[in-house]
Amino acid sequence: xxxxxxxxxxAGGEKVAALKDLAVPMRDGVHLAGDAYASDFGTPRPxxxxxxxxGKELQALALTMPPQKxxxxxxxxxxxxxxxxxxxxxxxxxVIGDLRGSGxxxxxxxxxxNAGGVSLGEDAYDFIEWVAAQPWCDGNVGMIxxxxxxxxxxxxxxxxxxxxxxxxxxxxxxDFYETTYHGGIMWLMPRAAREGRGGDSGWAFTxxxxxxxxxxxxxxxxxxxxxxxxxxxxxxAWPNLVHALHYPKNHEPWFDIVMNDVDGEWYEERNPVNxxxxxxxxxWLQIDQGRGWTMxxxxxxxxxxxxxxxxxxxxxxxxxxxxxxxxxxxKMFRWYDKWLKGIDNGVDEEPAVSVFVEGTRQYVExxxxxxxxxxxxxxxxxxxxxxxSEPEPMGPAHAGPxxxxxxxxxxxxxxxxxSWSTDVFDEPATLMGTGxxxxxxxxxxxxxxxIMRMWDVGPGGKRQLLTTAYLKASMRELDADKSTxxxxxxxxxxxxxxEPDRIEEYVLRVYPMAATILPGHRITVELSCNEPxxxxxxxxxxxxxxxxxxxxxxxxxxYRDAAHPSRLVLPFTV
Length: 574
Known about the structure:
This protein is of the alpha+beta class.
């Protein structure tokens, strides 16, 4: 560990005092590195703790770099610990720590949310209690930060450190499998977050960052498992993944994700959603629309937290916050002023749930999500690209299937899509909640991706993404006990190859949404097996924020006739 030094930093004209390279002891003797920022260290104040493997020095750029919005080339997805100067100006100490095995910290970080046999929750507990005991802290601690930092808040709160009085989680990730595979389809963004690609600095790697797969399997077992994984045509067609599997020590955390392509014990052991039931302090969860799986996980986490004082805010599209992260600080300071400073500002008496509704651009409040009662109604896929509340009356002999052939992206840059649209709406209609996409289809291979994106299309053709749905065809099994007509749930624990040319019913989970379709607008739904790198939505995301394409040529036939009622089931408020 480096020696702690105290210095003053010029943050845009404001002076911030800093304690750099604090050595924070863990219960097993390992020390984590941290930096503390305050207006001065002579007066005890509440502290806001931020923990991640992205490196505390990277977070310090919040003092010198103006916030960047996508698609700025300087946007860095890992600068997520918050606005240091503003935290200090609001009377808090901002403490930013490097997790075990990363940055300037000691120890081994093995796998994800696991630290060499010690859960990251235990390390967070020890870090928080050490901070609370310092003379510059008054004993009251909260946490700060989005994405990975947000997940760490849930993991820490589940350990119940006595000094942690509340958390405010913005843009967190929860079910770890759902963070890396959507409906069983690999999402490439986690590689960027871990290795530093396409606008992300990645983890602050040290020799202490290791693969859990390599640590827990013999070389012979690894060789066998890697050989099996390399048989996947999607993997074979993506050079980065072939490289990661052949040279795992260059990509250790990502190697673990690639090797664990179905849900199960590896993900569940550190699943923050499972830990949520142990949280007994005030919690405010916030998420923006546009990346449906994070909305889904945020809502599930909110529902499972038993704490009396909990809040959920779903904000407006688009989905990507600034880097350095500066949004949502107004809400956060009101929350911490109440629970860390004891200021009676009424935040605990306001409605628990607040949802921004696209279209009307107004917030709707209530006690649960959705805050308004919704009933699920069906919109049927019809010939000639029509989406209708009336089912198709003709059978397959007359309303024959339509389809698309998708060549691998190794041989084409064209992504094929089918689309269906409603007539324009005469009256406003509000959608709020989850949905389902029932798709009757046949493919000529044993697997493919199903990717559905739903748009609000305005009178001039301008469109905005409302929600998405993803499903790997081989992972189509439903959990009958958990699924409902408007909320299908897939176990995603095994692959069952598709029988080529057989018509199957695929039921995709449509992620939560909150939007009013205004008069003159229409709903358009697009279906594909890959997604375009650039369009109205994807241009707002980092370059790696897309899904692993299908690596083989596949012909897809979609049936939408009287015998095969392909349809959307959507939550219309009443």
